[in-house]
């Protein structure tokens, strides 16, 4: 099954804000100050910390000055109403992030907040004084990525964000390996006690409109020690080894991708198809023609009218991938009745796409009704253009809120077989996608 990350990021009922690649902290946009050059105001003392977490939202104007001792090891005791979690913080690998976390914890910023987003098999997110996913301290700061440190295990503490260099106060603890987040979120600690408490925290998906608040995060206490419980990490290389620049390879480079005469991907396994390309295709289809896609599923056929006049780049991408057989024999990844169906994640993981990112066309005026089709957005950080997946597709199973216009790259509409959409489940398959021109 496609990880619930995608559903949490993409559920149409909750797309009124910015999402990041992975864990979104839909904090209001703020300029990212320079840690070196920005004058730091006198911090609010813990005694002056507002008792109501809502009053803490945006209370600071810039990140704290560096106050932790990098020769020491820092531990955080996270007191919750389900028990105590103890984490060792990676001040040696993410000093700016740990300094920020220690500062906020010591000031009482996290006291009596909630775990507002807890997705089973994925992560538990906290640190938002507003409790909605939209709150924060009032400033942003830079990412820190330590070589070799990745999301390969549960129990890692990392920063939620809405894009590069947009860290604030929201953080999450992984409940499983989440490799696709590596390089997108700063890891700054690891749970050393209380892993069983994570299993007890109430699961809460904000996109499902829960009628209850998340479990309480009572306080975070910081302790400074001389020694580490965890193994010493391998030192970062003094000079990074340059990564060879790959030769650009796009779907439009394959002979037969325009007319469908070369369905080479259909004969490959899913792992072989993943990241087969590394750059989005050139616009090579004839935009004066009318394009339809016949999507054959194990429940029957769907006819998709493609909006080549409104979203030529998106249609061009879909046509080429379909003609090459990318979607043939792939699973229906996720179905949320009345909301959305997702396909195009070749191995049922969020990273299992064609291998590149799409610059989305989000300005077209399109009727947002059942059956409208969009690429999955991966990076939404206004005013920058939306960046979408190359092949992971969302099909609306109901009317879509108008708030998503400008965020989603809609490029087609199911016109025949709408009744079949209600029959599809994650047990079904996309048998083939055939392009028809008129």
Overview of the structural elements:
The chain is of the alpha+beta class and 438 residues long. The protein folds into two domains: 4-225, Cyclophilin (Beta Barrel), CATH 2.40.100; 251-437, Beta Barrel (Cyclophilin), CATH 2.40.100.10. It is built from six helices and 18 strands. It has helices at residues 4-10, 95-107, 195-200, 270-273, 312-323, 418-421; strands at residues 73-80, 83-89, 113-114, 117-119, 123-126, 156-159, 171-174, 187-193, 216-225, 291-297, 300-306, 330-336, 340-343, 357-359, 372-379, 387-396, 409-416, 429-437. The strands form two sheets. Strands 3-9-1-2-8-6-7-5-4 form a nine-stranded antiparallel sheet, with helices on both faces. Strands 10-11-17-15-16-13-12-18 form an eight-stranded antiparallel β-barrel. The longest helix has 13 residues, at 95-107. It is elongated and about 70 Å long. The chain starts with a helix and ends with a strand. Mean pLDDT is 85; it is low at 1-22 and 27-45.
**Average pLDDT figure:** 85
Total count of strands: 18
CATH superfamily of the largest domain: Cyclophilin-like
The number of domains is: 2
Radius of gyration: 23 Å
SSE sequence, one letter per element: HEEHEEEEEEHEHEEHEEEEEEHE
Shape: elongated
Q: In DSSP terms, counting alpha (H) and pi (I) runs of 4 or more, how many helices?
A: 6
**CATH architecture term of the largest domain:** Beta Barrel
CATH topology name of the largest domain, in short, is: Cyclophilin
CATH class categorisation of the largest domain: Mainly Beta
Unreliable stretches (pLDDT < 50, length at least 5) are: 1-22, 27-45
| Helix-residue proportion | 10-25%
Spatial separation of the terminal alpha carbons? 36 Å
Instruction: Classify the beta-strand content into a percent band.
Output: 25-35%
The strand order across the widest sheet is 3-9-1-2-8-6-7-5-4
Major sheet attributes: 9 strands, antiparallel
């Amino acid at each position: 099954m496609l990880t619930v990350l995608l559903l949490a990021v993409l559920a149409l009922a909750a797309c009124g804000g910015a999402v990041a690649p992975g864990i979104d902290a839909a904090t209001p946009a703020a300029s990212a100050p320079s840690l070196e050059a920005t004058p730091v105001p006198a911090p609010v003392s813990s005694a002056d910390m507002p008792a109501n977490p809502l009053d803490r939202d945006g209370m600071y104007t810039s990140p704290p000055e560096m106050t932790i001792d990098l020769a020491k090891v820092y531990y955080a005791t996270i007191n919750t109403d389900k028990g105590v979690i103890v984490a060792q913080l990676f001040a040696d690998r993410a000093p700016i992030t740990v300094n920020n976390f220690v500062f906020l914890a010591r000031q009482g910023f996290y006291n009596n907040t909630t775990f507002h987003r807890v997705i089973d098999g994925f992560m538990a997110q906290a640190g938002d004084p507003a409790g909605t996913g939209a709150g924060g301290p009032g400033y942003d700061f830079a990412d820190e990525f330590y070589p070799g440190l990745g999301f390969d295990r549960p129990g890692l503490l990392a920063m939620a964000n809405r894009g590069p260099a947009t860290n604030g106060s929201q953080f999450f603890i992984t409940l499983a390996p989440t490799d696709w987040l590596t390089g997108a979120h700063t890891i700054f600690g690891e749970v050393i006690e209380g892993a069983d408490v994570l299993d007890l925290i109430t699961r809460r998906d904000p996109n499902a409109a829960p009628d209850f608040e998340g479990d309480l995060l009572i306080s975070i206490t910081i302790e400074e020690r001389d020694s580490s419980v965890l193994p010493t990490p391998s030192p970062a290389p003094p000079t990074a080894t340059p990564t060879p620049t790959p030769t650009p390879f796009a779907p439009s480079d394959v002979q037969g991708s325009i007319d469908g005469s070369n369905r080479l991907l259909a004969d490959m396994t899913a792992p072989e198809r993943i990241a087969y390309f590394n750059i989005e295709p050139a616009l090579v289809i004839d935009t004066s023609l009318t394009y339809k896609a016949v999507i054959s599923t194990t429940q029957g056929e769907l006819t998709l009218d493609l909006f080549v006049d409104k979203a030529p780049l998106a249609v061009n991408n879909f046509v080429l991938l379909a003609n090459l057989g990318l979607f043939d024999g792939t699973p229906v990844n996720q179905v949320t009745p009345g909301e959305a169906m997702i396909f195009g994640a070749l191995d049922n993981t969020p990273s299992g796409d064609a291998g590149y990112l799409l610059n989305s066309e989000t300005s077209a005026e399109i009727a947002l009704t059942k059956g409208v089709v969009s690429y999955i957005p991966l990076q939404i950080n206004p005013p920058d253009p939306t960046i979408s997946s190359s092949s992971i597709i969302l099909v609306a199973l109901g009317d879509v809120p108008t708030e998503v216009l400008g965020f989603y790259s809609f490029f087609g509409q199911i016109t025949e077989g709408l009744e079949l959409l209600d029959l599809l489940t994650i047990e079904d398959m996309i048998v083939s996608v055939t392009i028809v021109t008129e």
